[in-house]
Write a structure and sequence with these properties.
The protein is of the alpha/beta class and 247 residues long. Helices cover 44% and strands 13% of the residues. Strand 3, helix 3 and strand 4 form a beta-alpha-beta unit. The two termini are 25 Å apart.
Length: 247
């Protein structure tokens, strides 16, 4: 059966952040679904809830699983959610997981500081969008520069989404994951802070650090990230489980 890929975006952005990956998967005949979480993208009129986010992921995964083994891919907030989802007591039908830019525990002083920073930016004229666009223009290649904002920015959902992440029990969830797992981080990603903890909890996982990239690794180096997808798809397609990869 053909591997099915499900993509889960990060905070503020939408399914459009995956344009390069969707195009590559389409070109290679690999079915893909990129979801919009509540309060984001095509669903910006909805209120973000953690339960609604998990329900969105679960619906996409179970629908895809009817057609083949599922490779689940999540970035940033989406990565945290997919780790918690895949590591549930009753495991969902996920055959492999790529968790991108999310090796950090969203709690305590670090989360509080990020929420304060986000609120500060939100109080700027035009809610900081001018600054955001300047930063993207300075760091992203022209072909992916507009992918993050193409579906609109979920500015109203940002703070409630950040506060909701503190309810996740990621240490427990990551330790329960038994499917092939890849942690992918940019070299200069601020969310590498708990990288060693995550790789210790999931000893079968493979850590891939992409040089000369920051948090936005999927759009800064799309060809490099698509190579990771190629590896993950091939692994799931071959039916190589976590134990086989660890060996």
């Amino acid at each position: 059966m053909t591997v099915q890929v499900v993509l889960v975006h990060g905070i503020r952005t939408s399914a459009t952040m995956w344009r390069s990956q969707v195009a590559w998967l389409d070109q290679n005949g690999i079915p893909v679904t990129a979801v919009d979480l509540p309060g984001h993208g095509t669903r910006r009129d909805e209120v973000f809830t953690i339960d609604g986010a998990f329900a969105t992921i679960d619906e996409a995964v179970r629908d895809a699983a009817e057609r083949g083994p599922v490779l689940l891919v999540g970035h940033s907030m989406g990565g945290l959610l997919t780790l918690e989802y895949t590591g549930a007591v009753d495991p969902p039908p996920v055959s492999g997981l790529v968790a991108v830019s999310c090796t950090a525990l969203p709690r305590g002083a670090a989360l509080a500081a990020y929420r304060t920073f986000a609120r500060t930016i939100d109080r700027l004229p035009d809610r900081g969008l001018w600054l955001t666009r300047r930063m993207l223009a300075a760091t992203l290649p022209p072909e992916t520069r507009h992918d993050y904002e193409a579906g609109g920015y979920a500015l109203d959902a940002q703070d409630i989404a950040l506060s909701s992440l503190s309810s996740l029990d990621l240490a427990t969830a990551v330790a329960r994951i038994r499917v092939p797992l890849w942690f992918v981080n940019g070299q200069f990603d601020q969310l590498r802070v708990n990288e060693r903890l995550f790789t210790r909890l999931a000893r079968h996982a493979e850590l891939i650090v992409v040089p000369k990239t920051s948090h936005l690794v999927t759009t800064m180096r799309p060809a490099a990230f698509n190579a990771v997808l190629r590896l993950a798809v091939a692994t799931v397609e071959a039916g190589i489980g976590a134990e086989g990869r660890a060996g």
